[in-house]
Write a structure and sequence with these properties.
Blueprint: E1 2-8, H1 20-23, H2 28-41, E2 44-50, H3 54-67, E3 70-74, H4 83-90, E4 96-100, E5 122-125, H5 130-142
Parallel strand pairs: 1-2, 1-3, 3-4, 4-5
Helix pairs in contact: 3-4
């Protein structure tokens, strides 16, 4: 079973409360629960962490290089200026995918540049929370796996 680390950066613990017109009403707990279920359906062990602290994120990236097959990261505002997180990603040999809930390219100008993107295998933006599912599928493909069919969410 492939192991993927999902890292959510600053303020993502405020999902469901922070700017719901941009980020929606689902909480980080809701998102992580849905993603772990989704990942397990396609043979992935997904471990989720969130931190508002740059050093904690860097430590998790370093650890991931030795214990995981891939990293998915939403670095939040660190996207635009954290050369330390960028260098941490560059220091590991496993693939990393950057994901953002909103379309950062359609928002404030300072959000248009990612210092993280050049050291990732891809960037997914603007698909809402579904972007995380896309990132998981893309990571599985990068790791040599295939998905024929999977139910993304239960509907009621």
């Amino acid at each position: 079973m492939k192991r993927i680390l999902l890292i959510n950066g600053p303020n993502l613990n405020r999902l469901g409360k922070r700017e719901p017109h941009i980020y929606g009403h689902a909480t980080l707990d809701d998102l992580e629960k849905d993603l772990r279920l989704f990942a397990s359906q396609i043979g992935i062990n997904l471990v989720c962490v969130q931190s508002n602290h740059e050093g904690v994120i860097i430590d998790k990236i370093h650890e991931a290089g030795d214990t995981y097959d891939g990293v998915i990261i939403n670095p939040g505002a660190f996207t635009h200026y954290s050369y330390a997180i960028r260098d941490a990603i560059a220091s590991i040999t496993i693939p990393t995918i950057e994901v953002h809930i909103s379309n950062v390219h359609a928002r404030e100008e300072f959000r248009h540049t990612s210092v993280i993107a050049p050291v990732t295998v891809g960037q997914i933006v603007g698909l809402g929370l579904y972007g995380y599912n896309v990132a998981i599928l893309a990571m599985l493909e990068k790791l040599g796996g295939k998905v024929e069919y999977v139910k993304i969410r239960e509907t009621t």
